[in-house]
Amino acid sequence: MLKFEELKSFLDEKADRYNTPDFIENDPIQIPHRFSLQQDIEIAGFLAATISWGNRKSIISSAEKMLSIMGDSPYDFVMNYSQKDLEDIQDKSIHRTFNGQDFAYFIRQFNRIYKENESLESLFEVRESETNFLHAIERFRNNFLETEKHRSHKHISSPGKNSSAKRIIMFLRWMVRKDKRGVDFGIWEKIDHKYLSIPLDVHTGNISRKLGLISRTQNDWKTVEELDIAIRKFDENDPAKYDFALFGLGVTKELL
């Protein structure tokens, strides 16, 4: 087991190596990187993050399919679609269990939200008494999903129900982190990236256990908060940069 300073130095080096523009090419973050308008970035990013499970090439291909359906202009499509557009989408295959019905539902919800908000940022703001995005994500879910039950609700995880909410946490990293490395966008100015967590999945969970960062065996929200405590000791202002380190260790299999 590495000592604190050795582990910090090790993780800093890995984060520095992988947090470069080269990272974009094979990652779903390339999808929102195709746009410059903030609303396009938000919509493309949220959709790409929502389907980010499984093979990364497959994720990117499925995200490109959604972009194509929207005429490569997500915001314009969301604000100006016709009823026939949605009907045509309903029967399409998109990505695994995220189907055309889900895609159409998300488009309708985006339309409603952007009529009321200039950006998704206002729906994710962290309040003064909060230390992470748990309550912000729950507030967003309640707004985005409304109360009517729909099959698409399963595609937006609830940390309040102890889900790790990996895909939303990843999306938040994209939107919030500012470090001028060219990977994360940092286009949301009102939210401090000190509140960000590590997107927790099987790989980051296993690597974190091998490094002694967490002890819980489940990959759930309680484990996200356990990892928060460990990671923020290394950098309390920018904890999510270590997502690049854990990703890099997963790619290189260095800890196997």
SSE diagram, text form:
Layout: H1 4-18, H2 38-50, H3 56-69, H4 74-80, H5 83-90, H6 100-116, H7 134-145, H8 166-176, H9 202-210, H10 221-232, H11 242-252
What report would you give on this structure?
By secondary structure, the protein is mainly α. Helices cover 50% and strands 0% of the residues. It has 11 helices and no strands.
Secondary-structure element string:
HHHHHHHHHHH
Report the β-strand fraction as a percent range: under 5%
Largest sheet: none
Structural class: mainly alpha
| Total count of helical runs of at least 4 residues | 11
Q: Helical percent range? A: 40-55%
Choose one word for the global shape: globular
Instruction: Give the overall pLDDT as a whole number.
Output: 93
Number of strands: 0
Q: Could you name the ranges where pLDDT drops below 50 across 5 or more consecutive residues?
A: none
End-to-end separation: 14 Å
List keywords for this structure.
0% strand; 256 residues; 50% helix; 11 helices; mainly alpha
Short structural description:
It contains 11 helices and no strands.
